[in-house]
Amino acid sequence: MNIRNHPASALASCILLLTVSAVRADVVTEWNEIMVQTALVATPDPVVRARTAAIAQVAVFEAVNSIVGDYEPYDHALAAPQGASAEAAAIAAAHRVLSTLHPQATSQLDAAREQSLAIIPDGTAKTAGIAVGIMAADSIIALRADDGVDDPVSHTPGTLPGEYRPTPPDLTPAFRPGFGQVATFVTRSGRQFRSADPPELRSKQYAVAFEEVKRVGEADSTQRPADRTQIARFYGIADVDTIYYPAARQIIGTRSRTVSQNARLFALLSMAIWDSAVACLETKYHFNLWRPVTAIREAHTDGNRRTEPDTAWAPLVFTPPFPSYRSAHASLGGAARAVLEQEFGRAGHVITLTHPALSDIVLHYTTFKQITDDIDDARIYGGIHYRFDQQAGARQGKRVGEYVLRHALRPACAHLDRRR
């Protein structure tokens, strides 16, 4: 989870991309891409984007599933006329959510909606599908209206050794300190999967992790391999919505899948990401551990004879403005990976990741583990996390993802589970 404004060039590229993709998989994947681009243009806040994603994808699922009936509903099945178009329902649901949550994009969304609907023959099936999609969107929007995402919560910066406080260079105040208490989609609460305690400041484990990030994460480190510098730069600005959704769409494009299967996949993925984000920030603000830049500059206060301070130390990439333990990127990645591996298998994929602000970096992967391993390195070689942050985050995210898979959108009948 990266908290920083996107470069203007990246936003400009995203705005240009706000059209239906030239490579059609189906309307669900098309509108997943439109959703990501709409939210990226609308806000740099990853929480707002994750909320948009989850509401939109759950609404699309509920609309499609109310017509097709392959899976258990998220909230409740809507009354859908026989023969209603699932494709029209998906388009209408996505459009309704996005134009409601991001009204400034309505004109672009209206154009995309008309382009998508144009491929569906006019008639009662199309009209009925649109009506179901609008009902599904309105239902999920109403369900999440009081989720607490914008409830004000204060945070007092720490002063004692090990306590989080705003980090240089800009000393940004703590980001969304109350987010760990907002409503989840599937898990019971953010606290349900709280991580175990981080290592004690005086421990050898802490000192080893401290020394690693100090050595390879410094802005001018001579011990960081060139490829790890590139990875750190890439994942310093790439976020979950520009990593896991594009990866899923690329794999979908190589397989024969139904609209219903894809609607379920994106709903599960977005809910797992959201619930993992809630769990992550609940853990972060519960333990309130200082970031490496603070720890290294103030190592003379930590009581650990193995650590040495460097008052001028600075990380390679921007330090997000919230506590270190655990890594949000690792947690959200762990949840996404659990869903994607269950859906597509662990290996044999062809995934290419790019970012419009980093045209010199193109990453190629064949497994989701390769992605999460690179992200773990990126946060350490970027100088903003300890190794134990990444390890704990991956464990927590995996548990959240597996819980979502067990408890949400299960097949209505076992023989209808055609995900593979």
Please explain how this structure is put together.
The structure is a single chain. With 420 residues, this protein is mainly α. The chain folds into two domains: 1-146, Up-down Bundle (Vanadium-containing Chloroperoxidase, domain 1), CATH 1.20.144; 191-420, Vanadium-containing Chloroperoxidase, domain 2 (Orthogonal Bundle). It is 52% helix and 1% strand. Strands 1-2 form a two-stranded antiparallel sheet. It starts with 7 loop residues before the first helix and ends in a 13-residue tail after the last helix.
Largest sheet properties: 2 strands, antiparallel
What's the CATH topology label of the largest domain?
Vanadium-containing Chloroperoxidase, domain 2
Q: In CATH's first tier, which class of the largest domain applies?
A: Mainly Alpha
Low-confidence stretches: 5-24, 415-420
- Average pLDDT metric: 93
Q: What percent of residues are in strands?
A: under 5%
Distance between the termini: 30 Å
Query: What is the annotated CATH architecture of the largest domain?
Result: Orthogonal Bundle
Approximate shape: elongated
Q: What is the N-to-C order of secondary-structure elements (H for helix, E for strand)?
A: HHHHHHHHHHHHEEHH
Structural class: mainly alpha
Q: Bin the helical content.
A: 40-55%
Counted beta strands: 2
Q: Count up the domains.
A: 2
Strand order of the largest sheet: 1-2
* Count of alpha and pi helical runs: 14
Compute the CA-based radius of gyration.
22 Å
